[in-house]
């Protein structure tokens, strides 16, 4: 696990976007795993800038998103499909038919999840997975108490995630946040060949500490990433504050990135 500590989230987002751009340049048929939420927005803007500057093209890229709320149509303005269209897909040259988000309205949720897993496998697996992290240490919607080997399934949100998500989305209305979601499993995520996780702000301090230096435990599902051999954590100073070896990680990752 490499921890890149930047002064600001803007700086961290730029570096993370450079890593994604480099991957797509190296393999124009890259299979991306994508995340929603407040955290990746700046990185997505940087990715869009690179497309505009003709540094890279997503024409042949395929993507699979991490999760979607159960009960929301892709046209709902708080759905993750809608979020992706607005915050990334419309801004880059990806073909919308190559983008995949779980269907929160599927009649048979289990079937939907199993089909999603099959699609990812058929595409050759995820080359680079983008992740955020919940303040409770979740990745995708894998809340504390989820098996570190879990696969894509229907999951239940904790009250703290519902609160976090209401604060940032749903106009603050907790009652409007769905309590269930379809989510890639921890095991599914860990199969990605490369992982780029972003974490910004004080609210993520404990989650980052658990992810990087905590024991590997289902109580902080991000800690499963410790067993991944190409995982990059891009964070700002605030999110990295509680890391015991913060300075060492920062030096090591900066050296590896040639910064
Ligand atoms: C979103 C997702 C979640 C978020 C996490 C952090 O697709 O899978 O795990 O990454 O909840 O959300 P933000 O970025 O809004 O703090």
Description:
The chain has 259 residues and is of the alpha/beta class. It has one domain: Rossmann fold (3-Layer(aba) Sandwich), CATH 3.40.50.1360. The protein is 36% helix and 16% strand. The chain has 9 helices and 10 strands. It has helices spanning 9-26, 41-52, 80-87, 109-122, 159-168, 186-190, 205-213, 237-240, 246-257, and strands at residues 2-6, 31-34, 62-65, 67-69, 99-100, 128-131, 153-156, 180-183, 194-199, 231-236. The strands form 2 sheets. It has a 7-stranded parallel beta sheet. Strands 4-8-7 form a 3-stranded antiparallel beta sheet. Helix 1 (9-26) packs across helix 2. The longest helix is centred in the first third of the chain and has 18 residues, at 9-26. The radius of gyration is 17 Å and the shape is globular. The two termini are 18 Å apart. 45% of the residues are buried. The mean pLDDT is 97. The structure holds fructose -6-phosphate.
Can you summarize this structure?
The chain is α/β, with parallel strands linked by helices. 36% of the residues lie in helices and 16% in strands.
User: What best-fitting shape do the alpha-carbon axes yield?
Assistant: globular
| Low-confidence regions | none
CATH architecture classification: 3-Layer(aba) Sandwich
Total beta-strand segments:
10
Distance between the termini: 18 Å
The total tally of domains equals: 1
Return the CATH class: Alpha Beta
Map the helices and strands.
Elements: E1 2-6, H1 9-26, E2 31-34, H2 41-52, E3 62-65, E4 67-69, H3 80-87, E5 99-100, H4 109-122, E6 128-131, E7 153-156, H5 159-168, E8 180-183, H6 186-190, E9 194-199, H7 205-213, E10 231-236, H8 237-240, H9 246-257
Helix pairs in contact: 1-2
Bound molecules: fructose -6-phosphate (F6R).
């Amino acid at each position: 696990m490499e921890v890149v500590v930047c002064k600001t989230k803007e700086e961290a987002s730029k570096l993370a976007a450079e890593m994604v751009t480099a991957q797509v340049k190296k393999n124009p048929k890259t299979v991306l795993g994508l995340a929603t939420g407040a955290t990746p927005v700046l990185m997505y803007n940087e990715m869009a800038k690179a497309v505009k500057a003709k540094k890279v093209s997503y024409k042949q890229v395929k993507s699979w998103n991490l999760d979607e709320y159960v009960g929301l149509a892709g046209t709902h303005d708080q759905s993750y499909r809608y979020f992706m269209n607005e915050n990334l897909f419309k801004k880059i040259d990806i073909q919308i038919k190559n983008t995949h988000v779980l269907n929160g309205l599927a009649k048979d949720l289990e079937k939907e999840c199993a089909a999603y897993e099959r699609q990812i496998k058929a595409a050759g697996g995820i080359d680079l997975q983008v992740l955020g992290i919940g303040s409770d240490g979740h990745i995708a919607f894998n809340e504390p108490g989820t098996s570190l080997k879990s696969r894509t399934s229907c999951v239940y949100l904790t009250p703290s995630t519902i609160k976090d998500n209401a604060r940032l989305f749903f106009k603050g209305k907790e009652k409007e946040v769905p309590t269930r979601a379809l989510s890639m499993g921890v095991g599914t995520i860990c199969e990605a060949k490369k992982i780029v996780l972003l974490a910004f702000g004080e609210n993520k301090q404990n989650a980052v500490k658990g992810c990087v230096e905590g024991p590997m435990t289902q109580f902080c599902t991000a800690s499963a990433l410790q067993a991944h051999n190409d995982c990059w954590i891009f964070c700002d100073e605030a999110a990295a504050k509680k890391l015991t070896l913060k300075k060492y990680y920062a030096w090591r990752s900066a050296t590896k990135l040639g910064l």
